[in-house]
């Protein structure tokens, strides 16, 4: 059973932006938001491949997730 199948869906229909999604804390937050029914925009800067793996994991569980790679400290990339 996917983590999304047994939740109340309090975030159903919402989209959450998770910065630092390729890190341990960001990844854990992304999983919790997905389990609560949110679709996700995953941000990564240093390890985009990890964010893409997380996206694939969440997609397989029914969460619509996308990855954005950017250095948020650089105005042109925001």
Topology at a glance:
Elements: E1 15-18, H1 24-35, E2 39-44, H2 48-59, E3 65-69
Parallel strand pairs: 1-2, 2-3
Task: Note down, in words, how this protein is organized.
31% of the residues lie in helices and 19% in strands. It has 78 residues and is an alpha/beta fold. Strands 1-2-3 form a three-stranded parallel sheet, with helices on one face. Helix 2 (48-59) links the parallel strand 2 (39-44) and strand 3 (65-69). The N and C termini lie far apart (37 Å).
Structural key phrases:
78 residues, alpha/beta, 3-stranded parallel β-sheet, 2 helices, 3 strands, 19% strand, globular
Strand order in the largest sheet? 1-2-3
Main sheet summary = 3 strands, parallel
Strand-and-helix sequence, N→C? EHEHE
Helix proportion range = 25-40%
Q: Pick out the low-confidence regions.
A: none
**Treating each run of at least 4 consecutive H or I residues as one helix, how many helices?**
2
Strand content bin: 15-25%
Q: Alpha-carbon distance between the termini?
A: 37 Å
Q: What is the rounded Rg?
A: 12 Å
Helix/strand-derived category reads alpha/beta
Shape: globular
Short description:
The chain is of the alpha/beta class and 78 residues long. It has helices spanning 24-35, 48-59; strands at 15-18, 39-44, 65-69. The chain is 31% helix and 19% strand.
